[in-house]
Each structure stands twice: as C-alpha cells, then as structure tokens.
Specification:
Number of helices: 5
Structural class: alpha+beta
Order of helices and strands: HHEEEEEEHEEEEEEHEEEEH
Shape: globular
Organism: Hibiscus syriacus
Distance between the termini: 50 Å
CATH topology: Jelly Rolls
Keywords: Iron, Metal-binding, Oxidoreductase
CATH superfamily: B-lactam Antibiotic, Isopenicillin N Synthase, Chain
Strand content: 15-25%
Family: Belongs to the iron/ascorbate-dependent oxidoreductase family.
Largest sheet: 6 strands, antiparallel
Bound molecules: 2-oxoglutaric acid, fe (ii) ion
Protein name: 2-oxoglutarate (2OG) and Fe(II)-dependent oxygenase superfamily protein
GO molecular function, one term: metal ion binding
CATH class: Mainly Beta
C-alpha cells in the first residue's frame, strides 16, 4: 500500500473516526413549488458527467490547465485547508461573466481584473456548467430573500450586495484514499461566502460539526436534495445571528466521490460588516469592517500552498470590544 505523503496527515485530534453515528438532525426544506429546482437538478446531473470525464483524464492533461498563485481558477490538486493538504482534486470556474476582482491582495493596489470563464480553453464543457450556474443563482437569490425576511429586513436587502457576484462553481473530486483514517478530503472549515448550494453524489463523506457538543455529524446523501451551507459573510452581516457551518469531508478507500459546490459571494466592492439595521446602542457590532474583494483574493492566494501561518479568516476581524 505504500506510505502516505506527510503533507496529507492530520494531527491526531482532527483525524476522522471511520465508524460514525447516523443522525437525522439536519433540517430538510421543500422548495419544490417552482420549476427552478427541477431544472437545476437535471442540469446538475449533466455537470456531474462533465466533472467525471474531466477528472478521469490523465494527470498530465489536467495539469496543463493548472492554477497558480495569481490565477485561482481551473485545476488544482494541492489545496491546503488549515495548512494540511486535502485528498482531492478541484476545478474552479468563476460564475459571473465577467467576474471583477482586485488584481492583487495589496490593499494599496486599486487595479481590478475582469475574468471571462467562457473564454477559457479547457477540455471540459464550460457551457453546461455556466448554464447550471444561471439556474442555481436563482435559487441562491431566493434563499437570500428568505434569510433577509427572517432577519426582519427588506426582502432584497442582501440580494443587492450580489449585483456583481464573485463566487466560483467548484467541481470536487475525491479519489479513493488508502489512508482514510489519517487524511481528509477537505479539512475542517466554514465556507467564506454568503451561501453555498452543494450537490453531492451518493457516496457520502461530508460531515458537519454539531454546535452543541462538537461531534462530527455525517450528512447523508439525499436524492435530489441540495445542501445549503451558511457561510462566513452571513455570520458577519447578521452579527452572529446566523453562524457559518463548520464542515469537513472524510474519504474512503473504496469509492471515488464527486461534489459540486456553488459558492455565492458578493460584489468585490462590498464592505463587510454587521448590517446597520441589526446593531444599536446595546447590540454592538461584533466585527470590524473589511473589503470583501481584498479579503477573498488574499485568502485564495494563500490556499494555494502550505504556509507558515494560518490563512486570513473572519475571526481576525472579530471586535474584542464587543465580546
Ligand atoms: O464535498 C463536499 O461535500 C463539500 C466540499 C466543501 O466543503 C467545499 O468544497 O467547500
Ligand atoms: Fe466547504
């Protein structure tokens, strides 16, 4: 079986227990009143086929479209979450045509860069993926409306921040792993944006950390259901009324696994801070403000490889005065 590369090995506290409990704690919401979800599911199946065909290409072919520190789309097989290498391969493409982002993480550099996904020359059907994005973004806007209303805000309050959304669609591929007790497909993290709309196949492996006792709860695959993750942006905007979900992926030695997260990120110029409507003299802002575009670009550049220090995260903006 050989030896595992040290870069993949989790510290003992974060190694997965392979016999996990089965629970039904995750709420399931039926939004099937419109055709949008049905259509998204159908195109989603086509995207899964596209992903399978791409990841089964020889590694040399995939590496021809490999990302680097400056261009953070396309193929990547060296992502480090919390500084440990993930047992996975990914393909990222930006959703908005074009997507506008800061050209560099440097706070003084005001240059912007526009990326057109459909212009890429890639052995993968980008049109199918972009068609899927157009349908899923309708679902994401609808979810944002429901969340805005739940916070006592106007229905379009959050959606307005996504006029020039910056998120990627990601294709995740987890090859079988001979060391599933030592490595993780994705290490523990919460998603950086507002919402993630995730489709997983029937293999299973996604786990979410219970807020009450810290246990890892497996998210059982449900046919034709999306998993919706609350991301860090909603935690900041809602001043901790919504909490981003910590999750990870365990791998197995038998079956490969595919998943497709759609990351819904706001416009690059959005200033991240708790919404004014949700704070007052008594409820203080729990986060200091920061610019979304620079934060995102900084985080992406550093996920690229192993670093000396941990990646930038929302905890870095927690206001010590408010806790
Ligand atoms: O593969 C999954 O189920 C989840 C992947 C994930 O958490 C991510 O890509 O951020
Ligand atoms: Fe995630």
């Amino acid at each position: 079986m050989g030896e595992i590369d040290e870069a993949f090995v989790q510290v003992p506290d974060h190694r997965p227990k392979l016999s996990t409990i089965e629970v039904d704690e995750i709420p399931v919401i039926d939004l099937s009143a419109s055709e949008t979800e049905k259509l998204a599911m159908e195109i989603g199946k086509a995207v899964e086929k596209v992903a399978k065909a791409f990841f089964h290409l020889p590694i040399e072919e995939k590496r021809k479209v490999k990302r680097d520190e400056l261009n953070f789309t396309c193929y990547h097989d060296e992502e480090h979450t919390k500084n440990i290498r993930d047992w996975k391969e990914v393909f990222d493409m930006l959703i908005q045509e074009p997507t506008i982002l800061p050209a560099s993480p440097d706070p003084d550099d005001e240059e912007l860069e526009a990326t057109l996904t459909s212009g890429l020359r890639i052995p993968l059907s980008l049109e199918t993926c972009l068609e899927y994005c157009r349908v899923v973004e309708k679902l994401a806007f609808r979810l944002l409306e429901l969340i805005s209303i739940s916070l006592g805000l106007a229905a379009n309050r959050l959606g307005e921040l996504f006029k020039h959304q910056t998120g990627p669609l990601r294709l995740n591929y987890y090859p079988p792993c001979p060391f599933p007790e030592l490595a993780l497909g994705v290490g523990r993290h919460s998603d950086g944006g507002a919402l993630t709309v995730l489709v997983q196949d029937d293999v299973g492996g996604l786990q979410i950390r219970s807020q009450s006792d810290g246990e890892w709860i497996p998210i059982k695959p449900i046919l034709n259901a999306y998993i919706i993750n609350i991301g860090d942006n909603l935690q900041v905007w809602s001043n901790d009324l919504y909490v981003s979900a910590e999750h990870r992926v365990v791998v197995n030695s038998q079956r490969e696994r595919f998943s497709i997260p759609f990351f819904f990120f706001p416009s690059h110029y959005v200033t991240m801070k708790p919404l004014e409507e949700l704070v007052n003299d008594k409820i203080l802002m729990k986060y200091k403000e920061y610019n979304w575009g620079k934060y995102y670009v900084t985080q992406n550049g550093s996920n690229y490889k192993k670093l000396d220090a941990e990646n930038v995260q929302i905890e870095d903006f927690k206001d010590p005065e408010s806790v």
